[in-house]
Amino acid sequence: MTQAFFDMTGLRQVVHTANLIAVLTGAGISAESGVPTFRGTGGLWRNYSPEDLATPEAFARNPRLVWEWYDWRRGIIRQAQPNPGHLALAALERLTVERCGNGGSFTLITQNVDGLHERAGSQSVLKLHGDIWLVRCTGCGAVERNEEVPLRELPPRCGCGALLRPGVVWFGESLPSGEWEQACEASGHAQVMLVVGTSALVYPAAGLAQLARAAGAKLAVINPDETPLDSAADWAVRGIAGEVLPQLL
Ligand code: BJW
Ligand code: ZN
To answer: Tens of pLDDT along 188-211?
Structure first.
């Protein structure tokens, strides 16, 4: 049965005494910055679900449509600022590093491609699903940063003539192996894991919370809505990231 309880004092104490902390974030942490989530209210773009757009098949079928979605999102992200949730996680990392020195670790694992954690000052960020500001050539494989908003050419092309694609991970594609291995390592060793703003429906990212829990970590889920992880969580805090996370400081 789902339990939603809010013993913030207990959670704060755990977070301030643990040496090994992992955090898994999803689109919900950027919602208060004005970046749309993928699922739920306001999560759809022109009535397409992410499963319709974030696939290699969708790109092969209609690269212009997929790029229009990314161009729209890049425009929103360009204007967005880190919110109190992002800032609280960056502050928590600094506090943990100060308190524990080399004996501690704070790993922020994000499914987001918006770069807002880094802009908030987080240092140890593992980006499981890539970066919306990177483009990769479907022909020669070259990867480069592209911050043009809006894009002049839709879909954009590489100097070699082939189509460029966003430097992100779509359904059916593997996650970057280095980031994934480090994420597993941090989750498997964490004493506490915070899971913030994710529907926890997309794997393998969602499985990191189960990995952490099975290895003995305390698990806190911070989300205004119920998630499939709540029943396994020690704390299911029903609230928005920008209000709950600053309370942990
Ligand atoms: C707030 C808030 C506030 C709101 N504060 N909270 C069957 C079972 C298991 C797995 C599979 C399966 N069939 C297929 C798979 C694999 C598939 C998968 O998981 N599918 C499921 C949908 C079923 N996964 C993959 O394919 C992955 N790769 C893989 O498995 O490789 C191995 C493999 C290889 C070959 C063949 C098969 C497998 C890759 C997944 C890539 C996901 N990519 C995307 C797009 C990234 C680029 C981009 O951004 O465009 O990643 S899809 C999209 O979903 C994006 C997100 O990172 C990801 C997760 O979404 P997220 O972040 O959780 O957002 P939402 O919108 O779902 O939730 C927001 C939450 O915030 C909500 O809960 C709100 O309540 C909350 N919220 N406001 C706090 N203010
Ligand atoms: Zn090329």
So the answer is: 999 999 999 999 999 999 999 999
Distance CA 249, CA 178 (A): 30
Distance of CA 30 to the CA centre of its chain: 9
Q: Which two tokens stand for residue 163?
A: 């189509």
Residue ID of nearest Cα to ligand 1 atom 11: 203
Q: What is the mean pLDDT of the chain?
A: 95
| Cα separation, 213 vs 47, whole angstroms | 36
Output the residue whose Cα is nearest ligand 1's atom 10.
203
The burial class, CB within 10 Å (0-12 / 13-18 / 19+), for 11 is buried
Q: Helices 177-189 and 207-214 meet at what angle, rounded to 10?
A: 30
Euclidean distance between CA atoms 123 and 94, whole angstroms: 9
Distance from the alpha carbon of residue 174 to the mean position of ligand 2, in angstroms: 21
Answer yes or no: pTM beyond 0.90: yes
Cβ-in-10-Å burial (0-12, 13-18, 19+) of 161 comes to exposed
Q: How far apart are CA 122 and CA 245, in angstroms?
A: 14
